[in-house]
User: Fold this.
Amino acid sequence: MQVVDITDSINESDNIKTIKFKWPAESKPGQFIMVWIPGVDEIPMSLSYSDGITVDSVGEATQAIHALEKGSQIGIKGPYGNGFDLSGNDFLLIGGGTGIAALAMAAENLSQAGKKIRIAIGARTASDLLFVERMKALGEVHIATDDGSSGHHGFITQVAEKLITVKKPDMILACGPEPMMASAVKLAHKIPIQCSLERHMKCGFGICGSCQCGKFTVCKDGPVFSGEQLGQMEDFGKWKRDSSGKSVWF
Amino acid sequence: MVETFNRFPQSPDVLMADIKIEIAGIRLENPTMLASGILGQTGQSLLRIIHEGGAGAVVTKSIGLEPRTGHGNPCAIELKNGLLNAMGLPNPGIDAFGSELKIALKSNAPVIASIFADTGEKFSTLASRMEEHGAHAVELNLSCPHAEKYGLDMGSDPLKVSDIVGQVKDSVKIPVFAKLSPMVPDIGHIALAVQEAGGDAVVAINTIKAMRIEPEIGMPVLKNNVGGISGPAIKPAGIRAVYEIAGKVDIPIIGVGGVTTGLDAIEYIMAGASAVQIGSGVHYRGIDVFQKVSQEISEFMDRKGYASLQDIIGIARD
Assistant:
């Protein structure tokens, strides 16, 4: 555990903030950290920057993260997890909701490496869309909103389906609500795909087993899994486990 | 799908020593077992520890009568020489766990069900349910140091230990193991209570109460403030406990606490253990730590000319 100082807090939308901190550790795109907000909780967060996380305020811990100011201190464990395999030349990235945060660093790495990237970003409504400008600087951006307030009126997977059929990428990266990722895996068919999963996490480093998905732990074996691995998980897209280990259907 | 596990895929013919062991009638291909609390909450994770990890047996996470969420986060942190945790006995409850156990039982290796409760009667109910579900043995958690009313709160009193073990023995036919804490004045005395109540084996030790304060913040890191430490830091305490227990009882002892290498296991065995359990070692060396430790035990025995584990169990006491 390393205690770090918050250096910046940026409003991304009404409900989403990016928190930056002084943290020199090296990480791979797709890895995550365990963020300890002293006195409150500790939660897993994908790195949206090498020194930052992007957080939707949905509960006690995320509200506490939103309340952090420059100079506040948090504890960090990690970076943990495997990260994305960035081999391939023509990429499609599919981000649903804050899922795009876990893909953002991958997009930057791929762009720097001169790879072709298309980024499909989905959200409930236009004001919830995240990192649109950041992604436009890196590749071709396609948007979908549930209410039609921006881009395609409907699911991001409908946009992705068209891109897969027409553009035939050779690698797909996806992060978002699990039913969305389960659809993406079906759409990918024979094109290699990697999805970043989210499960209830306790230890974060592969010993407690609370984030078990099939035979894998999401924190240590994942959070990024290949389509082949996802196919071996009977729970993928169907159920997750609560903090007692009981199965809960999506 | 049942996979077969090749003990030494790289060197099938080289190692000679017999590392099979029988504990209370339960046969193990090698003397390494998954310790309770590490993974082991789902059937799939237990199967993987057997098939890919090479464990001779597995012990499930401790299961209670009702679902329990455990303590809040942070509940586990890495320290320099060990792991500190206060999970707080999270588990889905015995009703939901039956289907997980059935998955784990698809393997050929013994599956030992760890259970916790606050009365002998509840322990007996849990043990009977585990027996119905097909567990090969039950391990009574009399030693968790960070869950009020449970674990150590029962296991530090020899009369309570005797009562619980006795009641469980009366209600099941499968072997009954008791996992003990080193945080008692005389662990041999508690182990003797297990033996006299009919217990089939003693497992020692559980984690030792510990805490970590973050100086930058001025607060304990664990949400529960106090937790239990495991890993290399506690191995000498475990060796001492097993050594003292071996001087008091005749039933088999299973050594646990900081085993990450074959030589760690050998130390426990020489102190009097018939087998070892590995928990934090999964973190330090990966899921195949069981295979690695087994291989290292064999290599050590070959080098020293020991033919079987029986030749070294308790020799440091003689």
About this structure: Residues 21-317 of chain B form a domain with the TIM Barrel fold (CATH 3.20.20.70). The longest strand of chain B covers residues 111-115. The two ends of chain B are 46 Å apart (CA to CA).
